[in-house]
Specification:
- This protein has 96 residues and is α+β, with helices and mostly antiparallel strands.
- Helices cover 18% and strands 25% of the residues.
- A 3-stranded antiparallel β-sheet has the order 2-1-6. Strands 3-4-5 form a 3-stranded antiparallel β-sheet, with no helix packed on it.
- The longest helix is centred in the last third of the chain and has 11 residues.
- It holds the Pfam family Ribosomal_S27e.
- Belongs to the eukaryotic ribosomal protein eS27 family.
- InterPro entries: Ribosomal_eS27 (IPR000592), Ribosomal_eS27_Zn-bd_dom_sf (IPR023407), Ribosomal_zn-bd (IPR011332).
Length: 96
């Protein structure tokens, strides 16, 4: 009796809905993002699930506000993701 679905090759949509520890390969739901302030064009690194209000270092405007889960970006803010923690640490060390 064959199985109704392939357990070794799940679809990406199905994996995304699963709990982070019950996926085929465990991976976190959180990430870091670089948020650019539209006023002073300064880039600030923000955690996706930030629990405090994040302000711009240059002009002190609000970049994101916490919600129950992910932080909500303020209108007009642009961001990029994909940097891992080691790349962020290297970026901060080299920039100082």
């Amino acid at each position: 009796m064959p199985l109704a679905k392939d357990l070794l090759h799940p679809s990406p949509e199905e994996e995304k809905r699963k709990h982070k520890k019950k996926r085929l390969v465990q991976s976190p739901n959180s990430y870091f993002m670089d948020v650019k302030c539209p006023g002073c064009y300064q880039i600030t690194t923000v955690f996706s699930h930030a629990q405090t209000v994040v302000l711009c270092v240059g002009c002190s405007t609000v970049l994101c506000q916490p919600t129950g889960g992910k932080a909500r970006l303020t209108e007009g803010r642009s961001f990029r993701t994909g940097m891992c923690l080691t790349e962020i640490n290297l970026f901060q060390v080299q920039s100082t």
